[in-house]
Design a protein that fits this description.
The complex is a heterodimer of chains A (142) and B (364). By secondary structure, chain A is an alpha+beta fold. Chain A has one domain: OB fold (Dihydrolipoamide Acetyltransferase, E2P) (Beta Barrel). Chain A has four helices and eleven strands. In chain A, 39% of the residues are buried. Chain B is of the alpha+beta class. Chain B has three domains: 15-56 and 146-238, Gyrase A, domain 2 (2-Layer Sandwich); 60-132, Aminomethyltransferase beta-barrel domains (Alpha-Beta Plaits); 284-356, Aminomethyltransferase beta-barrel domains (Elongation Factor Tu (Ef-tu), domain 3, Beta Barrel). Chain B is 21% helix and 34% strand. Chain B has nine helices and 19 strands. Chain B has helices spanning 15-20, 40-49, 69-76, 124-133, 158-165, 169-174, 212-221, 229-238, 272-281, and strands at residues 24-28, 31-36, 52-55, 60-65, 88-95, 101-111, 114-119, 140-143, 148-154, 180-185, 188-193, 202-208, 225-226, 285-292, 303-306, 309-320, 325-333, 341-346, 349-356. In chain B, a hairpin with a 2-residue loop joins β6 (101-111) and β7 (114-119). In chain B, α2 packs across α8.
Chain lengths: 142, 364
């Protein structure tokens, strides 16, 4: 049995990777939440777990137009630097300012307060290329 | 550290324990090793604030015996082995004849005729071959890596925890750096040098491989936090300690890495002539710390500039939970002064920082 509290370190038992069914996903581990013509984008629980503690997030400025699959920023963790890819095309409306001071939100709440940015979905954009939760889960097994 | 995916990774006597704890396992020096259990930052803090433990069984352990073992070690290692007394260890180097470094090592004197050596996992085969080739002293070299395991217990509370678990609490509590204690921890026979790779107090417990899992579990039960290679790298950079392959290698003089203090000025040894020549002429570069203003992760190979001019290259980089900033080692031109502002070229952006002493962390 694991001790609940180690000296100086809170110990939590390993948790199962969370893949909310209401979101869409990419193979490059971004999630997308469609709200009308706006898409909220973040990285998945699996991605944050793979990256380890996130210490810095580099995001584009509002107003920038991104193309689908374009690299638009980076997530830097204690172990590695990982590129972020736009799941769909559009204009950046807002980035999550909280991440400047609290990049760990990407780890602790990847689908909530750890969101990365919101984009205005470009007209005529098809969402067909995005994965469902089941599709994304299946992609993790490969 | 080339990982060869086609060859199955080696395991340590603790591999199953790591997997049971949910560790993320990676290939390192041919072994499957835990890089983290939950969080590199939390594990680093556990070692700075309490007590953490690392499976370092992948490091190679050698026993050297013979009438001329002292003479042999004086010849093949850089530090003054004659200064060691029974039950004392020292950090040292295996230099090559060109004045580069085969490996950085720890040498322990058990008795006049018996010494032990701990060397890096990544250099295990190279070291054994190197020291065997130099063995014209009829020294018996016994490789006990597979029969033993090694757990480094580190942190301000490490001694206290180990003393409580030991049959020799007083010896543990009073041990100085590099003292070797022979004791039982949780009823398990340990060869326990008071040393480590984190800048913290602590011991490196060497025990029989079939007892390692019991020792690990006993330490867990005592509240010692399991820590992976990720936090080990963070802690050693914070403590200003070099890593072979980053700050030391076959071609670079160890004087550039600031290791003159473990290189004898009085004895003759393998590589002493070229090393003394560098010492007399001055090394071309020196190893410094780079403290960044931001949190971005500096990586080996990134360029360091002062006043728009390239002065050096990063050899190791971390996010430091202690400083809450990026921190790195860089080899810079010898004339470069500490305390000056610099920038590090990071993925197309110049990140500001300061050149500092490489010991970011000093134990109080």
């Amino acid at each position: 049995m694991l001790p609940k509290q180690c000296l100086g370190l809170l110990w939590y038992p390993g948790k199962v990777v969370n893949i909310p069914s209401e979101l869409k996903y990419t193979k490059s581990h971004e999630w997308v939440k469609i709200e009308g013509d706006t898409a909220v984008i973040g990285i998945t629980d699996h991605a944050q777990s793979e990256l380890g503690d996130v210490v810095f997030v580099d995001l584009p400025s509002p107003g920038r137009i991104v193309q689908a699959e374009e690299s638009f920023g980076t997530v830097e963790s204690v172990k590695t630097v990982s590129d972020l890819y736009a799941p769909i095309a559009g204009e950046v409306l807002e980035v999550n300012d909280m991440l400047g001071a609290q990049s760990e939100l990407v780890n602790s709440d990847p689908y909530g307060n750890g969101w990365l940015l919101k984009i205005k979905i470009a007209d005529g954009t098809s969402l067909d290329g995005l994965l469902s939760a089941e599709g994304y889960e299946a992609s993790l097994d490969n | 550290m080339a990982d060869t995916p086609s060859i199955p990774l080696l395991t340590t006597p603790l591999t199953e324990e790591h997997i049971a704890l949910g560790a993320r396992m990676v290939g390192f020096a041919g072994y499957s090793m835990p890089v983290q259990y939950q969080s590199v930052i939390a594990e680093s803090k556990a070692v700075r604030e309490g007590a953490g433990m690392f499976d370092v069984s992948h490091m190679a352990r050698l026993i050297l015996t013979g009438d001329k073992v002292l003479e042999y070690l004086e010849w093949i290692t850089s530090n003054d082995v004659s200064k060691l007394t029974d039950g004392k260890g020292q950090y040292s180097l295996l230099p090559n004849s060109q004045g580069g470094t085969v490996d950085d090592i720890i040498v322990y004197r058990i008795t006049e005729n018996e010494f032990r050596m701990v060397v890096n996992a990544s250099n295990h085969a190279k070291d054994v071959s190197h020291i065997t080739n130099l063995n014209t002293f009829a020294v018996e070299i016994q490789d006990v890596t597979n029969e033993t395991a090694m757990i480094a217990v580190q942190g301000p509370k490490a001694k206290e925890v180990l003393a409580k678990m030991s049959d020799q609490p007083e010896t543990i509590s009073l041990a100085d750096l590099f003292d070797v204690v022979h004791c039982k921890i949780a009823e398990i026979e340990c060869f326990a040098p008071c040393s480590g790779y984190t800048g913290e107090d602590g011991f490196e417990l060497i025990c029989a491989s079939d007892k390692a899992a019991s020792l690990w579990k006993a330490l867990l039960g005592a509240g010692v936090a399991p820590c992976g290679l990720g936090s080990r790298d963070v802690l050693r950079v914070e403590a200003g300690l070099p890593l072979y392959g980053h700050e030391l290698d076959d071609d670079r003089s160890p004087l550039e890495a600031g290791l003159g203090w473990v290189i004898s000025k009085t004895k003759s040894f393998v590589g002493s002539e070229p090393i003394n020549q560098v010492r007399a002429e001055g090394a071309k570069t020196k190893l410094v710390g780079v403290q960044l203003e931001g949190k971005r992760l500096p990586l080996a190979g990134m360029e360091v500039r002062v006043d728009g001019k390239a002065v050096g290259v990063i050899s190791s980089g971390i996010y430091s939970p202690l400083l809450e900033k990026g921190a790195a080692f860089a080899f810079v031109a010898s004339e470069t002064k500490l305390g000056v502002s610099c920038v590090v070229e990071m993925r197309g952006k110049e990140e500001p920082g300061t050149l500092v002493n490489k010991r970011f962390f000093k134990r109080a």
